[in-house]
């Protein structure tokens, strides 16, 4: 009698009855875990496929693509690693989840497909194909080995000035390519910059862009779309007034994060982050990275000017200013191989989306300088992991005590109390010891 795993493996078409019988005969047991491990080791199955088959799921294809692994959660849906069954080419498949298949999300997804189909730049993730399998809509893009910039920094710490300049300058050239086509990304952040093991950067999720000359055709026009940690002030105040300069502000925030390991305004919820983007400046980058040069810091400041008219004018200019610090290449450490969490099935999405309105109020024109600390005790409250504006989570997910540096102005309750009792006891001990010694000396001479 077949088990759930064996029946699912055969019904899926990934393993033939002859192959299954051969594996069972080889290991001499009917243990599903051992059979699965043998099939994975032989290359007939991947770890992700084995996980799905154990649960009884047999559909591991989308059109002509065979799903081999789960990459992660994107702004529009889940992303899977796949291979074309005829061509054998590895690719990434972005799936619009069934429960989010509304008219609005389908319009957004269709727009993303059409936009990416026309992109062809070495610094932008290319689109290969798009299709529909039953009720599931999907977009196929090139598979970029490596990791995204956010994971790279969280795993290995901030990048050096030279390595950060190389990655961000390449991302800037990818953005300039999009800007030249009339596109605005609107969600530039470390998670949307992919970095290969050789240190080559590509911008992903261009599909969240809107035609800068045709915002009325965008189903998300007039809404704040992006991540609170990287939103530009003008994007918060008037989402319809965004342009290429908004991407440059977000790229400046990304560069700040890349060299410091901190988002510009850590802690607080999305609304407070939006308010600080409009009214405040972050801590000086050298507070976290003392080796940064003054010219490099000035470049970050010029990218993060509150007033778009005072910001660096183009992404090409950003790349040119960073060029003097760029190394030719650098090696990205491979991720440590470890047992992975069970990945969700195709078309399922456990993530939650919610939005919050941006804070209104006048913008304070940036001066190109950085404040020495956050203003107000309310900004030093506990962080809100995963805070979102629109679709995408925030990067400030660490507890506030770890996410912010030790600063003399921090609240008294976060400081280690001064050991007054210990010092008083020590002084009393010294005085009593001295008095005792004097008394003993006096008695000695009296007896003499």
Automatic annotation (TrEMBL):
Any matching Pfam family: Pkinase
Enzyme Commission code: 2.7.11.1
InterPro entries in the record: Kinase-like_dom_sf, Prot_kinase_dom, Protein_kinase_ATP_BS, Ser/Thr_kinase_AS
PROSITE patterns named among the record's database cross-references: PROTEIN_KINASE_ATP, PROTEIN_KINASE_DOM, PROTEIN_KINASE_ST
Positions of the Protein kinase domain: 65-326
Membrane spanning residue stretches: 418-441
Signal peptide: none
Region (Disordered): 342-400
Domain of life: Bacteria
First-level EC class: transferase
GO molecular function, one term: ATP binding
Gene3D superfamilies: Transferase(Phosphotransferase) domain 1
Biased composition (Low complexity): 366-387
Alphabetized UniProt keyword annotations: ATP-binding, Kinase, Membrane, Nucleotide-binding, Transferase, Transmembrane, Transmembrane helix
Residues noted as binding ATP in the record, renumbered to the chain: 94
PANTHER family according to UniProt: MITOGEN-ACTIVATED PROTEIN KINASE KINASE KINASE 20-RELATED, SERINE_THREONINE-PROTEIN KINASE NEKL-3
Entry protein name: Serine/threonine-protein kinase PknA
Lineage of producing organism: Bacteria, Pseudomonadati, Planctomycetota, Planctomycetia, Pirellulales
